[in-house]
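Final report, Chapter 2: Outcomes

The project's central promise was a pipeline that accepts a single protein chain and returns its three-dimensional structure in a standardized token representation, suitable for archiving and comparison. That pipeline is now operational. To close this chapter, we reproduce one record exactly as it appears in the project archive, with the input sequence first and the structure output second.
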Amino acid sequence: MAITLFTNSSAMSASNALQKANSTLSSAMEHLGTGKRITKASDDAAGLQVATRLQGQTNGMAVAQRNIADASTMLQTGEGAMDEVSNIMYRMKDLATQAASDTNTTSSRNAISDELSSLNDELGSIMNNTSYAGDSLFGALASNKTTSTDGGKASDAVKASNGKMSDSMTFQIGASKGETSTVSVADKLNQLKSMITSLGKTENVDTAATALTGDDLQNFKSTSVNGVTKTLNADNKVVTTTTTKNGLDVSTSANANSLIDTLNSTLDNVSSLRSSFGASINSLGHASANLTNMKDNTDQALGNIQDADFASEASKMTRSQMLAQTSTSMLKQSNSMSSLVMSILG
């Protein structure tokens, strides 16, 4: 090999080897420090593209799993409310069956009627107040009170309102646009609301007002006894209002038997609605299980692409450190070759 002054090929080779070793060492340390095989696009351009797509998919799946859990919880809330509605109707049916027997006295039937009225009020409360995350699930029942003045009837003042379940509901159960599930219990729910409203239909009949004067006016107090209410209007006239719940009339054996049939039909509707809730909850459960399987495998594929192999990277780091040390030593030795020129000249 020629001895030259301007070109030190040995030093150049050693310097090049040192740069390569330092680059490999830096990359290995970066991978070990982050735990990722791909920390920048230059590490693996094609792999980065695939990993980005997989990461977006698995993130969407995680959100979809929460969507399914929320949807199941909401449906379970509705189904739990219907369970309590069933329990109330069981008791109402028992009372109607008891009232259908002519062994009951008038006072006994009045007591049964009072309990039926109270239970019916609770049915309305459940339907009106059941909510999820602040939103009504069933909506409000129609006003079941019709008023009349001196025998003239007026229409209902309040109409039924819709809740979240009064229309079909769509749940996002996957990471892509088409992965949705639609649940509809609207028809059965609206039918049940109508049946409950009819069950407790109330009529308020106002009789002709009677004017009061003198001591009678001074001593008058409003009263409400056994559905008969007496109040004083703006003209100082006593208005007597008689309230009856036609749907819960058990004053006779025939009426009580009719109520039994009505309650049986309503219970059938409640059980059908609960079955729909159960089927939808089960369907969402299967969707969740499948989504979990898909997410696990997607995470595994993502890990295969972007996760660092610590054994391999540690091996690269050790090798690069040794090469950097030897390259540095050889660079030092090659730089000393220029002294040979001086020895030749001297």
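Archive annotation: The longest strand covers residues 237-245.
This record, like all others produced under the grant, will remain available to the consortium after the project formally closes.
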